[in-house]
Amino acid sequence: MSSGPTCHCQSESGDYRALFAAHGLRCTRQRQVVYAALASTREHPTAESIYDTVRDESGSAGISLATVYNTLETLSNCGLCRKLATPGGPARFDALTDEHAHVVATDGSMMDLPEDLSDRVMAGVRDPELIAEIEKRLGVTVGRISIQLTAE
């Protein structure tokens, strides 16, 4: 059973220096602004919607859309957020980095499955024997489990 959502985003002051350092990242104003915008929502925003948020909140603060994309890619690569593919739509991002299930709605939006239901779904695929068989048969190493349910 999960121990609850894992979000690295708790910072009362909005200063993420220690958090970024712990993940091997240099702390820049742009990274702090983008991460704060992502960590403040549970709506699984796209890069474009994060850009709109930071532009609206800080008058752009000198942050371009390309900077937002690059920052999100960097945050995802170092484990501070998850990049979530959606069928036929732009990638979405999640500051909760624990293994949990998502539901993709017909409009392309994404939401977390309630924790109790997510735990039940994830339990079915966390079986070590099942993972070992998948790895053996496909010749891969499973590093993370990501489940998305698609609404009709």
Describe this structure as you would to a colleague:
The chain has 152 residues and is an alpha+beta fold. The protein folds into two domains: 8-97, Winged helix-like DNA-binding domain superfamily/Winged helix DNA-binding domain (Arc Repressor Mutant, subunit A, Orthogonal Bundle), CATH 1.10.10; 98-152, Dna Ligase, domain 1 (2-Layer Sandwich), CATH 3.30.1490. It has six helices and five strands; from the N terminus they run H-H-H-H-E-E-E-E-H-H-E. It has helices at 17-22, 29-39, 47-58, 65-77, 115-125, 128-138; strands spanning 82-86, 89-94, 101-104, 110-112, 147-150. The chain has a three-stranded mixed sheet. Strands 1-2 form a two-stranded antiparallel ribbon. A hairpin with a 2-residue loop joins strand 1 and strand 2 (89-94). Helix 2 (29-39) packs across helix 4 and helix 3 crosses helix 4 (65-77). The longest helix has 13 residues, at 65-77. The protein is globular, with a radius of gyration of 17 Å. The chain starts with 16 loop residues before the first helix and ends with a strand.
Which keywords apply here?
152 residues, alpha+beta, Arc Repressor Mutant, subunit A, Dna Ligase, domain 1, 2 domains, three-stranded mixed sheet, two-stranded antiparallel ribbon, 5 strands, globular
